[in-house]
Amino acid sequence: MAIFQVALIHPQDTIALSSMQAQASSQNLNENWRLTKFVQSDNLYPYNLFIGVMPNEYEKSRSNSTKFPIYIWTNKHLHPKEVKESMVDLVGRIYDELEEILREPLSVAQLNIVVMNDFNGD
Questions:
Q1: Residues with Cβ within 8 Å of residue 28, at least 6 apart in sequence
Q2: What InterPro entries has UniProt attached to this entry (predicted)?
Q3: pLDDT of the chain along its 122 residues, tens only?
């Protein structure tokens, strides 16, 4: 296990994600690049660390039904609003059900779910 402090430099017009929450809004470094800093993690196995850079076509929807934010990231050109709303509701209910089955709270600060189209361009 390790503690991680992540900062990503990524192209303008992209969105940076990590297992941890962003400290603040991204900073413009110049006309081509942005810097996004994330809060320091608690002890975390390296295989649980997520870092992603997505195109700006992605937008987030948030579930308010749980004890922490669940964000569903979808491509605004491919996924209609109704699909996003259904996914947010479903994920919130699954989390609540899982916590009830385990009978203990899950120590998670946030959850990001990214919906992607096929990598082969279909």
A1: 12, 34
A2: Aminopeptidase_N-like_N_sf (IPR042097)
A3: 899 999 999 999 999 999 888 998 899 999 999 999 999 988 888 988 899 999 988 888 887 666 778 888 888 888 888 888 888 888 878 888 888 898 887 777 778 888 887 666 65
